Amino acid sequence: MKTATMNRRGGLRAVLLLALLTGHSSALGQAEPEASPITSTSELMGIWAGVKNFGPRVQGPLTIEGHGASWVAEIAGFRVPMTFREGILSFQLPGDGGSFRGRLESSTGALHGQWIQPDLVSGFGQRFSTPLTLRSVAPGRFRGILHPLGDSIHVYLVLEEDNDGALHAYLRNPESNFGRILNITEIRRLDEAVELWGSLAWESEAEPRSILRGIYHSDGDILSIFIDGVGGTYDLRRLQDGAVSPFFPRSWAHGAYRYRPPSPLEDGWQTATLGSAGMAEGPMEDLVRKILTTPMDAIDAPHINAVLIARHGKLVFEEYFHGFSRDRPHDVRSASKSLTATLAGAAIHRGRITLDAKVYAAFPGAQPPGDLDPRAARMTLEHLLTMTSGLACDDWDGDSPGGEDRVQGQRDEPDWHRFLLRLPMVHEPGTHPAYCSVGMSLAGAMVARSTGLSIPEAFDRYLARPLAMSTYHTNLMPNGQAYGGGGLRLTARDFLKFGQLMLDDGAWHGRRILPQGWAQQATQKRYTLGHRRPEGYGYGWWLMEYQQGGRTLEAFYAGGNGGNYIIGIPELDLVVVFFASNYSQSVQHETKYQDVPDFILRSVLLGAREE
After folding, report:
1. 200 in helix, strand or coil?
2. CA distances from 298 to 44, 290, 588 (A)
3. Whether domain 248-322+545-611 has CATH 3.30.450
4. Whole-model pTM?
5. 253 vs 536: CA distance, rounded Å
6. Is pLDDT above 80 for 211?
7. Strand pairing of 193-200 and 330-331?
8. What CATH number labels 335-490?
9. Residue 186 · residue 198 · CB < 8 Å
10. 3-state secondary structure 361-390
């Protein structure tokens, strides 16, 4: 298997799953002595569903009080002393229960900080940082509510036989879709013991072997499957006809749908109807009906979680599926790169950094052993933003030492930015585009250094707070610093704001966040990237075109594995967001290439005719 096929999955997650499913566990990927299927497997047919919740253990109200250098924090039954050093208040809960770091800002009178929660099982060992603002409730006393990232894993196992007795089976995990790389071809059962035999998806000529094992409890109709490395044993229960489950787009809808305008909230979005924005309801209702009636009978069935549209600066369409809601953050994967590039624009607007800032000058001591390559000395922030650093980093080349999977899979250097900076140069900066996830994260680290803040702190101060964003979560490297190359978790309404920010030339409700003209610069084609379907690339944003009504519409987008997109079409004053969970599947591109023109652009075209 080429490493490139695993790229843009969130790197570390892909590496751990690869190890998990290729023999580095006691339960998966190892051949077992052949067992005769003595007991019938017909009673195992059906859709099986299970979920395990692993936390968070610590959440809820956080109170901090004190004066001078003496401060105490209270949360979830803990009362711990705090450290106050160089204007920063911090504490660590015992037993690796989490930690906090914050600053008291005189301009707001509030304590703004970041909560670091323990390793997440669903994040395959990653940690996440969550912004937390504590308001003054009394002199020397601050209070806020902590909402860390939920830690749960859903597992769906579909076992079906056709009339000829052929097995159709797949495992789906919507959080990461690790079932995507399993090819289940046979069920073997001996009394209560059940084995699923097959191979890994890329092993086209491999002999089938035992890849999942479990126990069927007939008295309770429970199928217990052990999945090592991702939570252990899952008790799966069969979904009965009419069951309400996030396995289905909407269990209760059965294809029935009528358009309803989005609800107004205190999040900065003005809402309106499709009609008032010059869009016809019919095509959008057709899109939702298509999603609702799509059979979930195959591993590559479209798994769309959210569709949102803003037109003329107002939110006019908002629908969720598969158990998602407006309050539930989603993993946007590599679309995070576009937001990291946007953070660079915000820092430039505030005069903290420039596009020609030298990379190695920002990280003294990080250069490779020996004299610094003159080409490396010429590398700038702009080169990182355009994927033209010249470093030996190419996610789509399985042999590249700086590819995301390799960097995140190694254990010798917990600082992935330092690892990248110590790689050799292979091109003159600005001459050769190569998709480099860690390079975009390095750009975020440059911005953070220029501001004297961490990446999460800079993102919160320069983007999240001005955009009135709700709770979001930043994934961290093993050294505890943020990773800006992918994996940010945020809500769909907040995700949509970044597209609107670019449409409105870097302003949100009249408040300038990005330099005037930055949006146009960032969405201008500077290079061409892509190993299957090359497209234009600007400063962290992709470029493409749509054909509608005999004209060509230029579009920019942020794209993340699974089908997670912000798509902006300036000529139509239109921005679209999709959340989806088709990780590493070709169907993830269907929303961008088919659903947008077939439904959304048709809605605009018909709406214009009706006006």
Report:
1. strand
2. 17, 16, 14
3. yes
4. 0.94
5. 39
6. yes
7. unpaired
8. 3.40.710.10
9. yes
10. HHCCCCCCCCCCCHHHHCCEHHHHHCCCCC
